[in-house]
Amino acid sequence: MLKFYKYQGTGNDFVMIDNRDLKFPKKDVSLVNLLCDRKFGVGADGLILLEQAEGYDFRMVYYNADGNESTMCGNGGRCIVAFAKHLGVIKEECCFIAVDGEHKARIDEDNLVSLQMIDVDQVLVEKKYSFLNTGSPHHVQVVRELDRYNVYAKGKGIRESDLYAPEGTNVNFVEQEGPNRFRIRTYERGVEDETLSCGTGATAVAIAMYEQGKADSTTIAIEVEGGDLMISFSKEGDKYQNVYLTGSATFVFEGGFNI
Ligand SMILES: N[C@@H](CCC[C@H](N)C(=O)O)C(=O)O
């Protein structure tokens, strides 16, 4: 029986597994895909392993719902901090290692997690879109009437376009809600659908909007379908640093899965 925990961060949901004993079959793409399946498995946008790592509080290994290991997940990063606290691996502060490098994080008594993201020194700004990597690749496009926008069809088209082949990209559609406040909807690579939230996506949108002059504060509020996120950063020359993604990370349930 495989013991699992389910967490969600602003509606981006994850199966969490304590793999400090290294017993999880990490190359089993179909098993990860099955665990994330919403009809035949537990159901999640991704699966995350917590492992031991020398010099760090823990290691985060992230898989998309399609079963493949992928690049950084910001909401997953916030959720694994809450999971590590639940397991007694950390207290309020930690430093962990993920696929894109080291991350510092802080969790408060209400499970609000502030996670440091990687520095960003390249933001491509084109007339109709921006592209940047915040741990995962993100296309950012401002649209009108976001509520009525066909995020699935348009997002899938951009994700699969020659522009981003062969790796593909995540795709964020944005509408400005007020000064330094934006609402976004995201099509996620590896889930191959719209998700309720994407942390690296929200971070990418905040930086892209600042870079384009649509925001003038280094603290930006991002409304996602599943809740609210806050992104803060500083800019030194062309480099965005001290980038922090803040939002809630919530335990949902735990159980055992027959494998
Ligand atoms: N949900 C994520 C992003 C996860 C990675 C993405 N699907 C990819 O493969 O690029 C987040 O919260 O950042």
Describe it.
With 259 residues, this protein is an alpha+beta fold. It has four helices and 17 strands. α2 (74-87) links the parallel β4 (58-64) and β5 (93-98). The protein is globular, with a radius of gyration of 17 Å. The ligand N[C@@H](CCC[C@H](N)C(=O)O)C(=O)O binds at residues 12, 64, 70-71, 73-76, 136, 170, 188-191, 198-200.
Keywords summarizing the entry:
single chain; 259 residues; alpha+beta; Diaminopimelate Epimerase, Chain A, domain 1; 2 domains; 17-stranded mixed beta sheet; 4 helices; 17 strands; globular; binds ligand LBFN2T5F; cytoplasm
What is the C-alpha radius of gyration, as a whole number of Å?
Answer: 17 Å
H and E order: EEHEEHEEEEEEHEEEHEEEE
Residue fraction in strands: 35-45%
Q: Return the CATH architecture of the largest domain.
A: Roll
Give the full name of the CATH homologous superfamily of the largest domain: Diaminopimelate Epimerase, Chain A, domain 1
CATH class label of the largest domain: Alpha Beta
Helix content: 10-25%
The main β sheet shows up as: 17 strands, mixed
- Count of beta strands: 17
Please report the number of helical segments. 4
Site (Could be important to modulate the pK values of the two catalytic cysteine residues): 138, 188
Function: Catalyzes the stereoinversion of LL-2,6-diaminopimelate (L,L-DAP) to meso-diaminopimelate (meso-DAP), a precursor of L-lysine and an essential component of the bacterial peptidoglycan.
Subcellular location: Cytoplasm
Pfam family, one: DAP_epimerase
